[in-house]
Amino acid sequence: MEDISIAALLKFFEKYFPLNHAERSEIPEKFSARSIKRRSFILQPGDICKYFTFIVSGCFRQYAVDENGKEHNLQFAVENEWITDLSSFYNEDPSGLYIEAVEPSVILQIKHDDLLYLYTTYHKFDRNFRIIVERKYIDLQNRVMQNISVTAENRYVNFINRYPDLANRLPNIQIASYLGITPEFLSKVRKKRVRPS
Q1: Where is the Cyclic nucleotide-binding domain (predicted)?
Q2: Do the domain assignments include residue 171?
């Protein structure tokens, strides 16, 4: 499992700033591979987020629970994507979020101190992770803009374009929570889109 996972991560870095031999040799030393069962958590409220997580296979959701017990999905992450609570990870403060496996998953995780070591020792890691964080910020910014300026139906269309295979991997209730609509309304939107014209 570990060799396949490391190969997936190295392939990911090839898209940005490919690593040299010395940099590549650090990956097995600093990242640890884990198999995660469906509905298992890698972060819960009150925990300090100790890892930056790369998804080799599977799917995760990051969510918060309000005072009424309602879940609000903030992010989904699938193969070749990253997930963490950035605030808790960098500030080392207790998190207010859950990160849960939606499917059986394989992940690679790096600890806070090990990532800082890579940043300072090999500047290419700093550049690669800056791109990762910038892309997550852009996704968040786009999502906020959609929530205040785009209809629910168009939010769903944008979701399908962003995550083309997730509509079949996630139950309606999870997608609806992410889009800020009810599962019933989402069902109407989906039926409308498949209805023959």
Answers
A1: 15-134
A2: no
CATH classification of the domain holding 95: 2.60.120.10
Q: Using CA atoms, how far apart are residues 122 and 137, in angstroms rounded to an integer? A: 23
In a domain, 133, yes or no: no
Sign of CA dihedral 49, 34, 6, 167: negative
Q: Which amino acid is at 97?
A: L
With respect to residue 107, please indicate whether it lies within any of the assigned structural domains: yes
Cβ(104)–Cβ(84) under 8 Å?
no
**Residue-level pLDDT, tens digit, the chain, 197 residues:** 668 899 999 999 999 899 999 999 999 999 999 999 999 999 999 999 999 999 999 999 999 999 999 999 999 999 999 999 999 999 999 999 999 999 999 999 999 999 999 999 999 999 999 999 999 899 889 888 888 888 888 888 888 888 888 888 898 899 999 998 888 888 888 887 765 54
pTM of this structure: 0.89
